[in-house]
Each structure stands twice: as C-alpha cells, then as structure tokens.
C-alpha cells in the first residue's frame, strides 16, 4: 500500500516547504495518546533516516517512521479549511474507532 495526498494536501505541503526554503517533505507518524490510544503526528521533515519509508504522492514526499507505518499504511491525507479552522484530515483504512473529539483513534488488531 502507500500513503497518498489529495491535491489540496500536496499543494499545502509544497507551499509550506517553499516558504520555509528547505525540507524533504511531510513527516507523518503516530504517538500513543488520547482516549482512543493513538494520535497522528504531522511535521515537516528536514531529513530522511534509513528507518524511514518514503512515499511520493503528487510530487511531494511523505516520510513515515518504521514503527508508525503499520498503523497508517493506506492512509489518504487531505487538507481542508472550514471557517477559521485549517487542518490535515486523514482517511485511514486501519481505523477501527475514533474518539468523539476526533483527536485519537484505535486500529483493528493484526
């Protein structure tokens, strides 16, 4: 499988990397937190390590650490603006349940 970006997400990442003047791409991972167990961690990657997996979608690199890929493989990342709120949104086929606030999720056991 892979990690993919919608056109809106790819444009947001490209624009941000251009304004920063450096960077490899978007780093996506997970951390243990919240009421459902896992939460997405999004940042801009300045380097790629040997343990990272790199996916290219719409000309933009998405870098995922080796520990996170099992929870987010197959995820599509979108970027949306809603009033005063702008955020990345995730369509993750591995999600079994999400908390009510939308900040954390659980995955199907493997």
Cα shape = globular
Percent strand: over 45%
CATH topology: Hypothetical Protein Aq_1857, Chain: A
Q: Could you say which structural class the secondary elements and strand pairing correspond to? A: alpha/beta
Q: How many helices in DSSP terms?
A: 2
Order of helices and strands, N to C?
Answer: EHEEEEHEEEE
Contiguous runs where pLDDT drops below 50 for at least 5 residues: none
Q: How many separate domains make up the residues? A: 1
**CATH level 1 class label:** Mainly Beta
Specify the CATH architecture: Sandwich
Order of the strands making up the biggest sheet: 3-2-5-4
The main β sheet shows up as:
4 strands, mixed
CATH homologous superfamily classification: HesB-like domain
Query: What's the Cα radius of gyration?
Result: 14 Å
Short descriptors:
Hypothetical Protein Aq_1857, Chain: A, 110 residues, alpha/beta, 3-stranded mixed β-sheet, 2 helices, 46% strand
Characterise this structure.
The protein has 110 residues and is α/β, with parallel strands linked by helices. The chain has a single domain, classed as Hypothetical Protein Aq_1857, Chain: A (Sandwich), CATH 2.60.300. The protein is 16% helix and 46% strand. It contains 2 helices and 9 strands. The longest helix has 14 residues, at 7-20.
Structure described in brief:
With 110 residues, the protein is α/β, with parallel strands linked by helices. It contains two helices and nine strands. The protein has a single domain, classed as Hypothetical Protein Aq_1857, Chain: A (Sandwich), CATH 2.60.300.
